[in-house]
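Practice problem: predict the structure.
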Amino acid sequence: MLGMMRKDLCLLLQRSRAMLMMAGVGIIIGFSTDGSFMIGYLTMISAILTIGTISYDEFDNGYLFLLTLPVTRRSYVTAKYIFCFLGDLVGWAAASVIYAGCCLAKGAGLGMEQLAAALVFLPVVGLMSAVMLPLQLKYGAEKSRLALAVLFGGIGVLGALGMKLFPGLPDTLRAFPEISGAALGVAALGAVVAAVALSYWISLGIMEKKEL
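Answer:
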């Protein structure tokens, strides 16, 4: 499993120039806007790069070669999940450091508002990776992007339809007592853990049934 993760890390390092360029774009965004968008941008880019290593494994019968090594389908999926979510965490941490640097350079200072702006992207990118990983394993790079667009497009349509059918819903939600930040954080963490567990189970099933 460690060998698989080392292989993926070497693949990422081959794209170090592209990553540095994206980091430069993130710094420009951080100085030209309020900066919090830059955290989401760099974290999402990090997630896309790590999940994209699956495409290299699919290329030129790569799966068949990998499975001749001491690698099982289950250990392959486990290694991918660990590598991708570690990549998400590292990308988020790097983006947060750049964000903090931009805030200090602009004289904005750092406080709870900036910390909350950084933390809010962690569950978002976790949920995105939980959705993208099984799609990538099932459909490959090109088809998974289309499936992801259809999925999020469908969610957007359902949300707009719900707002149209129930126009008083926002006022109803605002009528509930204010939820504390800690409770909201615990709920978000629970949702991400459940989504990742379900995603991992689905990915195992996809990989076990995959024809190589």
